[in-house]
């Protein structure tokens, strides 16, 4: 499994600080994945409680195995439609977990209902693909067309503003975050990590054997060029979006 928490090591501190979780807060973590954001929010919220919600049972099982805090619980559910109850949470957070809603306005309206009056929403989303080196150079090196634009659906502040205000939130603020993504300690580990990702897998699968070998060699060379000596790093660009 790709070590997503390691990849996020330079972004997570920025996101945690922006969430501003305080002692006693009730927190909802949308798209919690392996639970890093949930556990850190729980440490900040103590003696409050944090609920991590995700649609992947495999990721939630990983999260449970790495969580011992009694103030954390995990829920297998679609946050877009699940009834969390009205005015249940003080803060709703998400690190790259809200870009995939089929009905964004409806999903955020559901999250707004789960927040108490004056409750805060803090999410981190990717800026457009063109602003993210990792999202450009890996597919370009392998060859083929870009496939999945869903990670970047909330990259345009105008789109996000329209979605959130339509869902009942106040005018959002946007903070640009430009940090590096960590793909592995060395070229080989970064290479194996890239091959675990869906888009590179799909692109390689469409190539003839000789072309695939050439693409893999080009991928190794590109990763070598991004080896900083302290890991294979790519530039990234995200927004931290906050609203009430």
Give an account of the 3D structure.
The protein has a single domain (4-243), classed as Rossmann fold (3-Layer(aba) Sandwich), CATH 3.40.50.150. The two termini are 35 Å apart. Strands 3-2-1-4-5-9-6 form a seven-stranded mixed β-sheet. A two-stranded antiparallel ribbon has the order 7-8. It is of the alpha/beta class. 39% of the residues lie in helices and 23% in strands.
Q: Roughly what fraction of the amino acids lie in strands?
A: 15-25%
**Main structural class:** alpha/beta
Order of helix and strand elements from N to C terminus: HHEHEHEEHEHHEEHHHEE
Catalogue the unreliable spans: none
Mean pLDDT: 96
Beta strand count: 9
Sequence of strands across the biggest β-sheet: 3-2-1-4-5-9-6
Shape: globular
List the keywords:
244 residues, alpha/beta, Rossmann fold, seven-stranded mixed beta sheet, two-stranded antiparallel sheet, 10 helices
Give me the secondary-structure topology.
Elements: H1 4-7, H2 12-19, E1 26-30, H3 36-45, E2 49-54, H4 57-65, E3 72-76, E4 89-95, H5 104-114, E5 115-126, H6 133-142, H7 157-166, E6 173-177, E7 180-184, H8 187-195, H9 198-205, H10 209-225, E8 232-235, E9 238-243
Parallel strand pairs: 1-2, 1-4, 2-3, 4-5
Antiparallel strand pairs: 5-9, 6-9, 7-8
Helix pairs in contact: 6-10, 8-10
Give a short overview.
The protein has helices spanning 4-7, 12-19, 36-45, 57-65, 104-114, 133-142, 157-166, 187-195, 198-205, 209-225, and strands spanning 26-30, 49-54, 72-76, 89-95, 115-126, 173-177, 180-184, 232-235, 238-243. It has 244 residues and is α/β, with parallel strands linked by helices.
């Amino acid at each position: 499994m790709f070590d997503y928490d390691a990849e996020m090591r330079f972004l997570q501190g920025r996101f945690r600080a922006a969430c501003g979780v305080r002692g006693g807060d009730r927190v909802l973590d949308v798209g919690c994945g392996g639970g890093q954001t949930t556990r850190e929010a729980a440490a900040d919220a103590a003696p409050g409680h944090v609920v991590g919600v995700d649609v992947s049972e495999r990721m939630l099982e990983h999260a449970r195995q790495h969580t011992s805090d009694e103030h954390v619980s995990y829920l297998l559910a679609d946050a877009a439609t699940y009834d969390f109850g009205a005015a249940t949470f003080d803060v709703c957070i998400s690190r790259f977990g809200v870009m995939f809603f089929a009905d964004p306005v409806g999903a955020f309206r559901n999250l707004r209902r789960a927040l108490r009056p004056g409750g805060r929403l803090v999410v981190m989303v990717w800026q457009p693909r063109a602003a993210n080196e990792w999202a450009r150079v890996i597919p370009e090196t392998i060859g083929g067309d870009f496939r999945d634009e869903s990670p970047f659906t909330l990259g345009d502040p105008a789109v996000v503003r329209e979605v959130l205000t339509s869902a009942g939130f106040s005018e959002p603020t946007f903070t640009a975050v430009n940090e590096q993504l960590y793909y592995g300690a060395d070229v080989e580990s970064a290479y194996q990590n890239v091959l675990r990702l869906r888009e590179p897998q799909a692109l390689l699968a469409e190539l003839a054997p000789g072309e695939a070998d050439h693409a893999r060699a080009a991928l190794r060379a590109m990763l070598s060029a991004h080896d900083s000596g302290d890991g294979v790093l790519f530039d990234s660009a995200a927004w931290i979006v906050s609203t009430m």
